[in-house]
Specification:
By secondary structure, the chain is mainly alpha-helical. The chain is 53% helix and 3% strand. It is globular.
């Protein structure tokens, strides 16, 4: 008798992949995950369903999923708007893995189904080196915020002009560098999220704060960056309005990740520095924080990382820096004793 009751608890329910993924996305929205994470989950799940067909969830086997992930890595040609036919980057493969794993964990929890994903290890990749800015590069970028490129007219002396958006651009770069915020987070800030006296910035949780994983946190601006933001807001008509965006692009609109990336890249071009993108400021903040004696646990809290894995990556870079610095400065070697 007991035996049959046990079997009925594992009763096969009929649920298509499309219906389940729809429920999963609604569940994740309600959980307060960031808009970017939701979009990523949706994209990779639908891409998978398109490949395997909209079948019943209980039909999916571990081997099907392993085959799919292998296909993504070796045979899939992404359709990109710019016509680039390069295979998926390690990050995209990891995102696809994360979306599927999260989906099957949810299915198991909600519907008591066997989890075919449980023993599939995450894709392994060589750890990419994290690139950071040098002090000289930051100085050049800040100069590029304030002055336009030199103009050399034929009939008079060359000159440079002050850029109208100089105060804003300088305030943005210093905020990125001093807080290690993600692009989506800085774009979501309102004037009221910054306490100008203490430099405390509140990154709101959920979609409104742009935080990854939906988790809010507090970060801090030092005196120099605080002064730059104050100067920028003081010249803005709505600089005292608590509900106004902290940084605005054209026509008083808030920035989005794309417009911020374009701004930062243009400043890099003007300063003659290759590979300038918002996330590089985050890497620079983290590495410099550790070099200056900061500890990994407060760094983890400031960056909003749920695990120490990425933070350890920064530790390795900081240690490498120390090793290289010692090589250059070793008294015994330099004095040729």
């Amino acid at each position: 008798m007991n035996h049959s009751t046990h079997n009925s608890s594992k009763k096969k329910i009929s649920l298509t992949l499309s219906k389940a993924s729809d429920g999963f996305i609604k569940f994740k929205i309600a959980e307060g995950l960031s808009h970017r994470t939701i979009e990523s989950y949706e994209y990779y799940l639908w891409q998978w369903i398109e490949k395997v067909g909209d079948q019943d969830c209980s039909n999916i086997r571990t081997s099907d999923l392993v085959d799919y992930l292998a296909w993504l890595r070796t045979d899939y040609k992404p359709k990109r708007w710019n016509g680039n036919k390069a295979p998926y980057s390690p990050k995209s493969l990891k995102n696809a893995y994360t979306a599927l794993k999260s989906f099957f964990n949810w299915l198991t929890m909600e519907f008591n189904l066997e989890n075919p994903f449980v023993n599939i290890p995450p894709p392994k990749f060589p750890t990419q080196s994290v690139e950071i800015f040098t002090k000289e590069e930051i100085e050049k970028l800040l100069k590029a915020c304030v002055y336009s490129r030199e103009v050399n007219p034929s009939n008079r002396r060359s000159f440079v002009m002050r850029r109208p958006s100089g105060d804003r651009d300088k305030a943005i770069l210093l905020t990125l560098l001093d807080t290690g915020m993600r692009a989506g987070e800085i774009c979501s800030l309102l004037v009221e999220d910054l306490d100008q006296k203490t430099g405390k910035i509140r990154i709101k949780q959920g979609m409104s704060g742009g935080a990854k994983g939906g988790k809010g946190r507090t970060v801090f601006l030092g005196k120099v960056a605080r002064k730059a933001v104050w100067l920028y807001l003081a010249k803005r008509e709505d600089g005292d309005d608590p509900t106004a965006p902290l940084f605005t692009s054209h026509h008083d609109r808030p920035f989005n990740r794309n417009s911020l990336r374009i701004l930062v890249r243009r400043l890099g071009k003007r300063a003659d520095i290759a590979k300038v993108f918002p996330h590089k400021f985050r890497h620079t903040f983290a590495t410099t924080y550790l070099r200056s004696g900061g500890d990994i646990y407060t760094l983890q809290a400031l960056l909003g990382h749920s695990s120490l894995d990425m933070v350890r990556h920064y530790v390795r870079i900081a240690e490498l820096d120390i090793e290289n610095a010692h090589r250059k400065a070793s008294p015994v070697d330099n004095w040729r004793l």
